[in-house]
Amino acid sequence: MITKSLISIVAILMIATLSYGQMYTVSATAVGANEVPPVTSMGSASVTGTYDEMTNMITVTVNYSNLSSGLAAAHFHAGVVGANGPVIVNLAPPTGATSGTFGGTFAVPAVNEADLLAGNFYINLHTPNNPGGELRDQLNLLPVPPVVAAIPTMGQWGLMVLGLSVMIFGIISIRQKQLAINIA
To answer: Does one domain contain both 11 and 74?
Structure first.
C-alpha cells in the first residue's frame, strides 16, 4: 500500500516537471482597408507579441503611425475577416497621438481562446474621425516550438531529488518492516 502511494506521488511530481503550455508568436499589420466597411486612411499599425496558452495571457507591442486624428481607443475583438465582432480585450492605450507605441500583457477570457487560436481575433484602433475603427487586422498566431533543454532546470532537479528521497525512504521503511516481521 505504502509502495503504491510513493510511486504515485513520484510519478505525479515527475509529470508536473514536464508539463507546459504552448507558446505562440502574435503578429498583425493593421490598415484602413481591413475595416468593415473599409476606410481611407494613411495610417498603419504593426502588432508583435506572444500568447501563452497555459496562462491565457497575451503580451503585445503596437506601433502605429499617420492616423487621421488622435488615437481614441484600441481593442481586441472576436470576429472573422469581413465581419465586425464584440470587444473582448480593451488595450487601454494612451490617447490623443496620431503616431506612437503602446503595449502590455492582457488576459484572454478562456471562453474566447478558441477564437484567438483559430485566427478569429482582430485588433481595431479607433479615432474620432473613424469611431468604428480606423485600422484593423486579424491576429496571426504561430506556435513556438518547445525548447528541449539538455540540462534540467533547478526546479526539475529539486523534484527529482525529492522523488528519489521519497523512494529511498519508502524502500528502507518497507525493508525494516519486513525484517521486523521475520525476526518476530
So the answer is: no
User: In this predicted structure, what is the pLDDT of residue 174?
Assistant: 87
- 56-80 burial by CB neighbour count: b if 16+ within 10 A, else e? bebebebebeebbeebbbbbbbbbe
Kind plus residue range of the DSSP H or E element containing 9: helix 2-18
Range of the domain at 10: 2-18+148-183
Whether 66 contacts 42, CB under 8 Å: yes
- Whole-number Å distance between alpha carbons of 178 and 184: 10
Distance CA 58, CA 105 (A): 6
Displacement of CA 31 from its chain's centroid (Å): 25
For the record, the C-alpha cell of 151 comes out as 540540462
| pLDDT the model gives residue 179 | 79
What is the tally of structural domains in the chain? 2
Residue 62's SS3 state is strand
Q: Which of 82, 85, 89 has the alpha carbon at shortest distance from 49?
A: 89
Residues of the chain under the 70 pLDDT cut: 1-20, 147-151, 184
- One domain, residues 123 and 87: yes
Residue 155, pLDDT score: 76
